[in-house]
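In response to the reviewer comment on reproducibility (Comment 2.3), we provide here a single inverse folding case reported in full, input and output, so that an independent group could reproduce the run without further information from us. The structure tokens appear first.
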């Protein structure tokens, strides 16, 4: 390994971990922490699921505005600016929570966080490819994902646990969550200041504004249209939309179920307990499932492991039906149940990610993968929107029976896809 490569690797350690930690925090706050927060603030499950699912929209349409991040300003500019906007929006959420119209106003600022976070994702991933050479890009892939996972632990674990402790110490739930969002805002403003000085300035990080708008639009349409000309594109889209049909509904109601009292069919856990079970036990199990899935797929390919992975992401949902039936008071049992479900999700999600990579193969694979992630977000958004209404209409136990029935589309779309048996296998010398 050359001296230059080692020098760049040491410099990259200064910003890659913090950048991808910062990439994960706003996503998990918008998608997970907001659900727990609104539940604790007395919002109905119907409204929680409907309005927080709409927050997926920026990630659905992210491919439509990603070219403009290339044209206008540098990736470095977008990263620092979006971190400032995200921090300011988090502070604004904190300021709205003690007020009478907190739900409407906080949603406005969560929307701002969501759009800014999606833009930050585009800029950060693009900057990574410009600021790190090819030999180091592969080396840092695992570092990126590890610190993104740490962000998941911090966002849906530590911050929720902090909110729970503040609820207990202050006796004021709105103020406790306002203080928690204030902590998140301060953290993000520190990220902005840090990255303002630490991010490198690669010579290739320049705006492409010299490209005419008409040429850019023409190229965008060409790239976009080639995705829909792929062989089997209908099956590809159906798989992406319905593989997670069951999970998209479960994920919105899992935390409310844990928080609701036994009188309405919930487990009655405290905010701190929910932060622990999902932010630590759940994330560790999710990561272990993902690592095992990646290891096995690399040995025998996606096609070989597709059906076990489809079963893994769907069948562990039965633990929620068991929890809603027996309503155990033991926190150990609850933690084990969530660990089983999250391990299965991590293992099964491997097939989904590999399939999107497989579907994106070709000369425009970066843009086509972005389109796949847009359909992925759409597949999470629409089922999630109705999940709260279904739960309140059916009750928790019947809702989890429905969740098991909702796994059927995932199995059906898996039976339709045709995958190269060699895809996903690690290449051997």
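Designed residues, in position order:
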């Amino acid at each position: 390994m050359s001296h230059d490569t080692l020098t760049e690797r040491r410099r990259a350690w200064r910003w890659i971990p913090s950048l991808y930690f910062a990439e994960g925090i706003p996503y998990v706050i918008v998608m997970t922490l907001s659900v727990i927060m609104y539940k604790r603030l007395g919002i109905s499950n119907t409204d929680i699921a409907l309005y927080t699912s709409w927050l997926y929209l920026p990630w659905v349409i992210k491919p439509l505005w990603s070219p403009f991040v290339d044209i206008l300003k540098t990736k470095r500019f977008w990263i620092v600016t979006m971190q400032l906007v995200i921090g300011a929006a988090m502070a604004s959420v904190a300021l709205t929570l003690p007020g009478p119209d907190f739900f409407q106003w906080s949603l406005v600022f969560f929307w701002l966080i969501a759009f800014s976070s999606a833009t930050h994702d585009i800029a950060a991933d693009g900057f990574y490819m410009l600021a790190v050479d090819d030999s180091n890009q592969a080396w840092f892939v695992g570092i990126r994902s590890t610190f993104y996972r740490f962000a998941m632990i911090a966002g849906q674990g530590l911050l929720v646990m902090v909110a729970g402790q503040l609820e207990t110490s202050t006796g004021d739930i709105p103020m406790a969550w306002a203080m928690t969002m204030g902590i998140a805002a301060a953290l993000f403003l520190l990220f902005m200041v840090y990255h303002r000085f630490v991010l490198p300035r690669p010579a290739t990080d320049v705006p492409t504004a010299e490209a005419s708008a008409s040429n850019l639009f023409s190229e965008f349409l060409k790239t976009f249209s080639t995705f829909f000309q792929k062989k089997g594109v209908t099956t590809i889209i159906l798989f992406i939309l319905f593989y997670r049909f069951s999970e998209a509904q479960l994920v919105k109601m899992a935390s409310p179920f844990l928080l609701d009292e036994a009188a309405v069919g919930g487990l009655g856990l405290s905010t701190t307990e929910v932060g622990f079970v999902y932010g630590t036990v759940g994330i560790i199990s999710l990561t272990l499932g993902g690592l095992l899935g990646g290891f096995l797929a690399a040995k025998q390919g996606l096609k070989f492991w597709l059906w076990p992975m489809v079963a893994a992401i769907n069948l562990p949902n039965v633990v929620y039906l068991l929890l809603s039936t027996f309503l155990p008071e033991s926190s150990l049992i609850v933690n084990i149940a969530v660990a089983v479900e999250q391990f299965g999700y991590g293992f099964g999600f491997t097939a989904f990610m590999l399939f999107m990579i497989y579907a994106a193969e070709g000369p425009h694979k970066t843009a086509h993968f972005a389109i796949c992630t847009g359909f992925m977000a759409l597949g999470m958004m629409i089922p999630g929107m109705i999940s709260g209404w279904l739960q309140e209409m059916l009750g928790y136990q019947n809702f989890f029976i429905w969740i098991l029935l909702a796994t059927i589309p995932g199995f059906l779309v898996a039976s339709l896809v045709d995958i190269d048996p060699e895809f996903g296998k690690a290449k051997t010398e």
